[in-house]
Amino acid sequence: MTTAGLALALNGCGTSSRPAQSAHAPAVEPAVSVSIPVPPPAPRVSRAAPAQLAATIDALHRGFAGKAGIAIRAVDEGWTVEAGGRLSLPQQSVSKLWVAITLLDLRDQGKARLDEPILVRPEDLTLFHQPIAMLVKGAGYQTTVGDLLTRALTHSDNTANDRLLTFVGGPGAVRAMIERKRLGDIRFGPGERLLQARTAGLTWQPSYAVNNGFLTARSRLSPAVRAAALDAYVANPPDGAAPIAIADSLARLARGELLSETSTRILLDTMGASVTGRARLRAALPPGWTIQHKTGTGQDLGARNAGFNDVGLLTAPDGRRYAIAVMVGDTLRPIRERQQLIQSVAAAVASHAAMRN
Q1: CATH 3.40.710.10 fits 47-356, yes or no
Q2: Reported pTM
Q3: What's the confidence (pLDDT) of residue 48?
Q4: How confident is the model over 320-354, as pLDDT tens digits?
Q5: Distance between CA atoms of 282 and 277, rounded to whole angstroms?
Q6: Helix or strand or coil: residue 157?
Q7: At residue 28, does pLDDT exceed 60?
Q8: What SUPFAM superfamilies does the database record attribute to this sequence (predicted)?
Q9: Which sequence spans correspond to the domains of the chain?
Q10: What's phi and psi for 261, nearest 5 deg?
Q11: Which tens digit of pLDDT belongs to each residue from 255-298?
């Protein structure tokens, strides 16, 4: 389909709406470009995993002090490299991807439109990173479904995501999509408010959403209560997922197997506009590479962190694509070392691709 043809298709489907911008709104809308080729599904020849890359990934995994998992799937060649890739690790905001796919799947069924108006009310506010909260005043903030999708994926806005979650039918609808599309070992939690409150050892209250209410309440808990809650979360994360399942899902998305061609382009373009994780996967990519990704970051308890992730699709200058999931589930290592692990995986993939040229 030509660029002009796709633009007409987007307009006809009502998905190229461009909501009014504000000082806090992302600059990129969900349907913005056709720069990422999305070929139709085709038979693939699975090749053996490259031994040197596998050895490098294994060494990186063994050298990291913490519970972590790495998975790489060559989208077009079919091979897989993994280390700890079957562990169920906290996704945190990586799980916003499954809300987005649920929404776009509804769009493909004719049950949702990205230009559909939607109201974000004060009672919809969540916690932590929620830039949209500055716009939610009085009776609420009127916007569109597409704007919330952009905010959720590019800025990891928790309120935008939870409002979309309500729109698509709640956690049950997302879980049903994951099962129906056979995405594998991927769990979906109860939404940001309940998940984060439980992880901290709290029971959610609406007052936590404003004036740093959550942080204040959390600070009043004893270290023992917080440690017990974090232990329980890490042992059985309600948003846990295996890195290999995420990498496989991203590869299937890239091949156009999960959504329509237009919805696939919308999702990948929006992921490509993400402003989060500048010191993670993207930091190690050589010139000419592109990335569409989603980060996730969990709560800290002293030096301990549960959930430090980056997952995405890396595309080499020659068009070869690699779906990657790097997830740190529990560690005492400082943020710089977590970033370096993620960067090292991206650098290893880029090095492998360069050797093939």
Answers
A1: yes
A2: 0.87
A3: 84
A4: 999 999 999 999 999 999 999 999 999 999 999 99
A5: 8
A6: coil
A7: no
A8: beta-lactamase/transpeptidase-like
A9: 47-356
A10: -60, -45
A11: 999 999 999 999 999 999 999 999 999 999 999 999 999 999 99
What are the structure tokens assigned to 331, written together?
């560690």
Q: Amino acid letter at 235?
A: A
**What does the alpha-carbon distance between residue 254 and residue 271 come to, in Å, rounded to a whole number?**
12
